[in-house]
UniProtKB/TrEMBL annotation:
GO molecular function term, any single one: RNA 2',3'-cyclic 3'-phosphodiesterase activity
Protein name as catalogued: RNA 2',3'-cyclic phosphodiesterase
Motif HXTX 2: chain residues: 125-128
Reaction(s) catalysed (UniProt annotation): a 3'-end 2',3'-cyclophospho-ribonucleotide-RNA + H2O = a 3'-end 2'-phospho-ribonucleotide-RNA + H(+)
Active site: 43, 125
EC number(s) recorded for this UniProt protein: 3.1.4.58
Record domain Phosphoesterase HXTX: where: 12-89
Pfam families, alphabetized: LigT_PEase
Family: Belongs to the 2H phosphoesterase superfamily. ThpR family.
Organism: Serratia ureilytica
Keywords noted in UniProt: Hydrolase
Length: 180
């Protein structure tokens, strides 16, 4: 399997927003709540592809390059805890249609290319803490950051020296958002 890589499509967070989220997280959660995801690893997963051969990766990159979806904006105003996977997440109370359509498109392309897709419904989220398997005090609100997506990316999940790091591989633009 040395020829295959563990890949996923995701939205990246701008550097400034990464830093704001990380600073807020340090105040908002107790240190024992879970293991903080590194600022550079914060992302919103659109479609998880699993272990993908070089040939399949090339085909999926070509399909991604033909996507002509509009960009979108959302408010990061929701928080939650999934105790089973041990995840504390940041999300949105109103997922924009553009986000749902983009994820649906990438997931169906992945499924047609033979990448197993979870049967669970898509729940857009940015993982803040991992290994959060004990009850966590969730703050009542987030600062409600505005987040605009004008591109989506392909990442490789690399596990080395006991740590997971996400390597950015390629980015594709979303079409300009229509003015309101
Ligand atoms: O940070 P999140 O949770 O959004 O949970 C994994 C992470 O997303 C998810 O893919 C992202 C990069 O690893 N992931 C890992 N294994 C998965 C699987 N089998 C998975 N998503 C769905 N099915």
């Amino acid at each position: 399997m040395s020829n295959s890589r563990r890949l996923f499509f995701a939205l990246s967070l701008p550097d400034a927003l990464q830093q704001q989220v990380v600073r807020w997280r340090a105040e908002a959660f107790a240190p024992e709540a879970g293991r903080p995801v590194a600022a550079a690893n914060l992302h919103l997963t659109l479609a998880f592809l699993g272990e993908v051969s070089a040939q399949k990766e090339l085909a999926l990159r070509k399909l991604a390059g033909r996507i002509a979806q509009p960009g979108f904006s959302m408010r990061l105003d929701d928080l939650g805890h999934w105790p089973r996977p041990g995840v504390v997440w940041l999300g949105t109370r109103r997922a924009p249609r553009g986000l749902l359509q983009l994820a649906e498109l990438l997931r169906s392309q992945a499924a047609r290319s033979g990448c197993h897709q979870s049967a669970l419904p898509f729940h857009p989220h940015i993982t803040l803490l991992r290994a959060a398997t004990q009850p966590v005090a969730i703050p009542p609100a987030t600062p409600g950051w505005a987040f605009s997506a004008d591109a989506f990316s392909l990442y490789e999940s690399v596990f080395e020296n006991g740590r997971t790091r996400y390597q950015h591989l390629e980015q594709w633009p979303l079409a300009k958002q229509a003015s309101p």
